[in-house]
Amino acid sequence: MSVIVDDELWSAVGDPIRRRMLDLLLTDGGGTATTLSERLPVTRQAVAKHLGVLDRVGLVHATPSGRERIYAVDEAQFARAVAQLSSVGAAWDARLRRIKRIAEAIQQSREPRPET
Amino acid sequence: MSVIVDDELWSAVGDPIRRRMLDLLLTDGGGTATTLSERLPVTRQAVAKHLGVLDRVGLVHATPSGRERIYAVDEAQFARAVAQLSSVGAAWDARLRRIKRIAEAIQQSREPRPET
DNA sequence: GAAGATGCGCAACCAAAGGTTGCCTGAACG
DNA sequence: CGTTCAGGCAACCTTTGGTTGCGCATCTTC
Description:
The structure is a homodimer of 116-residue chains. The first copy, chain A, has 116 residues and is mostly helical. In chain A, 66% of the residues lie in helices and 10% in strands. Chain A contains five helices and two strands. Chain A has helices spanning 7-14, 16-28, 33-38, 44-56, 75-110; strands spanning 60-65, 68-73. Chain A has a two-stranded antiparallel ribbon with strand order 1-2. Chain A is elongated, with a radius of gyration of 21 Å. Chain A binds a DNA duplex (30 and 30 nucleotides) through residues 15, 17, 32-34, 42-46, 48-50, 53, 66-69.
């Protein structure tokens, strides 16, 4: 029962800069490579590349407006990414619980009378 | 309110191969670079490097046994990683809900009383 | 409308990370 | 012993994230 996710989507949100970009885009409702780069520790070009990655997996989409390209989060796709995140978290959490339960059972059967 | 996580921990589980490795280690209760590589699409050396990364962030630890090095998941640290995953998922989920609620409110206020 | 400012895309280049092959050491076992 | 097999090391390649530099297009302002 392995945890299977869309590696492309996951790796898109796996980058810390891209996570912060998504955060900023969600907070502000949209932004350009330039405006984003002003609030990030990387150059505009780096931001542009990240936007390209996010665009390719459909997490954001651009709207040309004059000489600007305004990017906004695609909520549907973003929701899918969040769902995957949650499902992996849940699956691993469940697995941890199971392991802990088993470990306790073993310990109980081995030392029915623990001291201290 | 931005989503802040331990980037080291996150990027450790951000790699798809490392996620599958953790999966395998959890399922089997432990393993060596060699045994893991047999079930992964990469070479033993690549697996060894990944194990090094996971070891450095404390997600796994090795137990020398003869000429083997048996790796196992550190459950406490792994639990922390899972918690971070979940918290990011939850935060983004909440944000999505809020946006959707606002969007609905706007639409409602616009529909009964259209423009100007 | 021309001139400067501003936003963006492209190209070259650099460094780090993931991956590979090859080799060598050292424990296990006949 | 000699063989075998797991693991560590080193060299090298490719991808990816990052930078600088430049050119083009679009605003803006006189």
